[in-house]
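Tutorial, part two.
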Amino acid sequence: MNTPDQQPSLLDRALRLFAPVKRGEGGTILLMALNIFLLMTAYYIIKPVRESLILANWGAEAKIYASAGQAVLLLGVVPLYSHLARMLNSRRLITAVLLFFAGCLVGFYFLAQMRVPLGIPFYLWVGIFNVMVVAQFWSFANDFYTPEQGKRLFALVGFGMSAGAVLGSVVTHLLIKSVGVYSLMLLSAMLLLVSLALTLATVRGAGRTATAAGVVSKMADEPLAGRSGFALVFANRYLTLIALMMILANLVNTTGEYVLGARVQAASQQSVPEVVRTADMSQAQYEAAVIDRTAQVGVAIGEFYADFFSVVNLVGLLAQLFLVARLVAWIGVGPALLILPLIAIGGYAMMAVFPVLGMARWAKTAENATDYSLQNTVRNMLFLPTTRAEKYKAKQAIDTFFVRMGDVLAALLVLGGTRLLHLGPSGFILVNVGLAALWCWLALAIGQRHRKLNPDG
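Running the prediction step on this input gives:
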């Protein structure tokens, strides 16, 4: 029997309702979950802002082309991150990255006050910000926990991610009309600084326990020497397959976002009356009316996406809390990788049969909610049996550049499909059905290799 000082804490026992938490793990789980909660809240506060700024002034095609531009920028950003990782230990690396992104948000706010157009630059920046800070957090989590712990506990850590996405969407929905789009940038910057404080607190707290002291010592003292993130990906067939899966998954998702964005844009344009120039209207009055209408369309788009993201993230939150840990424990990591592509096949097939905004919305709700909960947790588990350098540098390359390569391919698909083949949204939906089938095949191959690396997982 356990002696009194060996009994699990109240927090440990409470968390056992959702995952098999062992004695003493509850405190770090709480800190980790709160950390990713703040990061996702910060992102989802500015995500509808990003959609509003680019769709209202540029449209759905510009949005998907800007997504492709993020991959070009990441060709420079990923090697820079690898270089920093060779110079800094993990703790200092995380500090530098979060301070940089918080400073950027403050800079964007002041540029907006000077009326500098931000639509495309901010869209490019948000895409890089999101993938980098989230990838870095999960690198930290993979470094902090053992493979055995990660399989048990990542679903609970991921709950913080889902909860932050819900809160961020709700906050934006409540505040966007009253404070405007730009003030939300400062709120996101503040949350990044709090996240940094939690990371440092987690490392300090774990350093007091014997079980985590070795890991924390490495995080505090050892830079990640060796090859770059890209070199590590291409040297390991397992990592290469994961990179290919991320490209394909994002290609499917981004193409689906284009279909949804086009239908949202059309519906929002129809909801706001066109400006008709009358005989007694001056040129200045007409131009002001056009600008006002564009702003109204932007608000309508922002409200749709704030509501859409709220529903998506609420569904993802419930799945994360009550389903993910149980499902992974039941069927394993490999089979769990198949669930999202199968949902994508079914969703796009339904969108092809019922080509209306409502069906596109609910199919994308199912796809995105599964992506943000089960798929996100499982794909981060794939890195548990890898080396520390692979956890940080290779994972950063995969979760940033290779994810955005899916955006590049989506941009080429939309460009070629619309300009050369004259495809409409329904045509792209059918293409996605075929791509999702290929995604299933890759998930099977990765699952087989994961079982070889981690027979117990």
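The chain is about 85% helix and 0% strand. In part three we will examine how such features are distributed along the chain.
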